[in-house]
Amino acid sequence: MSDLIVVESVSKRYVTSSGPIEALHDVSLSVGAGEFCTLIGPSGCGKSTLLGMLGGLVTADTGRLLVDGRPVNGPDPGRVATVFQDAGLFPWRTALENVEFGLELQGVPRERRRAVATELLGPLGLRDFAEKYPRELSGGLRQRVAIGRALAIDTQIILMDEPFGALDEQTRLLMGEWLLDIWRRTRKTVVFVTHSLHEALALSTRVMVMTARPGRIKRVLELPMPYPRAMESAEMVALRATLWSGIRDESLRAMGER
Amino acid sequence: MTSRCARWASADVRVPALRAAILVLFLLAWEGVARTANPLLYVPPSAVLPAFGRLLALESYPDLVPSLLLTLREILVAYALAIAAGLGCGFALGLNRTIGRAYGPILAALYAVPAVVWYPSLMLFFGLDAASKIAFGFLLGFFPITLAVLAGIRQVSPHMLVVARAFGARPLVIFVKVMVPAMLFTLVGGLRTGLALSVIGVIVGEILGSRSGMGALINHAYGLFRTSDYVALVLVTLVLIVGSDALASLVERRAQRWTD
Predict the structure, then answer these.
(1) Contact in structure between B195 and B138 (CB atoms under 8 Å)
(2) In principle, which of A246, B106, B168, B208 could form an S-S bond with A77, CB 3.0–4.6 Å?
(3) Looking at CA atoms only, how far is residue B104 from chain A in angstroms?
(4) Whole-model pTM?
């Protein structure tokens, strides 16, 4: 399988008031087309920085990033869409108008983009909320609108930076199932950042564990099991233990650094 | 549903009724006090009403209409200049860190000075005619608009700008589709305050020294102890001010409904 996303020895250092911080150190990875690839690791390990680089929002100090064979050079809404932890909806736009945003920027005519967005609302479970403003929607619904906004521009790749991180656990579980359903229907390539072991194991085809700062890829877990996964099965429980043992040390290190 | 409708209706009636009540109470008190005092200095509403009629019939001041139009024109020009300069300065200071840091404190210092101290020098520079009134109306309207732009820019969430950038928005598109709508409510509030202050600037300017315009008429009536004419002129000016503010508040409410 040819790799859609290639990251080659990428490093990033931030300069803060308390001195330089090395966010990423020599990270290399690749993601194939159609994968659901999850980055997991302790707080501050540079997961979001890495995702920001893939989205063209953050520049790498060294190394290079390729998407579909071409170097990443700024945001490219033709190939990559991003969903953020904070939905970041525009409060003066209705749910439908928020979903249309990317299409509007691309100059898609009003009628056409309205049709595309309206069609998306069904599977997003937002049909009854088209004319609602973000302040009238719950956190889960808002995040669905944000995902709709990303799906609307129909890119091959969707980057998700802890999209359910701000939701309560029950909503989170439901949103995970829902996302899985959307992903299996659209077959997009997803790079997903999370803190949740459950999310990583239930959703991903591959999980990459990152180390504490400076972030590196510590280990990679392939998850070829079919969906929906029985999370209580002996196999998944064992995998969870493996994954946690990999993350635990890094989390301890990250906490000790504080 | 019906009880809610009923409550709405009763509020619709109650508010104007209360408003009318205070007005009537005020007029009655005014009438009562004025009748007992020196009629040269204190005019009761019952004497203002005929004076108001004479004013509107163009008997007491035949040049009422040109005066009113002149004042209106001065206000419009002053306000237009205040908007142009206020938006220009506000965005220059708010969007460019270096310019903001260099000139922001100067602006704040100037704003702290009571604007009326500038008026004598404005009359020296611009003369007794319209230009000095426009300059003063401009000066008063300029600051709230500039400050509203600065406050509005600070309100725009950086995250929204990142989102727009991620979807491929270029700076101009970000400005039009994200920044302006995000700050619209604050901006419109500043524009409303700016209008009110431009109006005040022009009228105060006219009263402090002029040969024409509503302020000049007010000065004339007041100087000749034509107190009832004076009050009638003030009422006409009041209608002008309240009218412009009502218009601005209408625009503001629309903006509020649009923004969060």
Answers:
(1) no
(2) B168
(3) 24
(4) 0.82
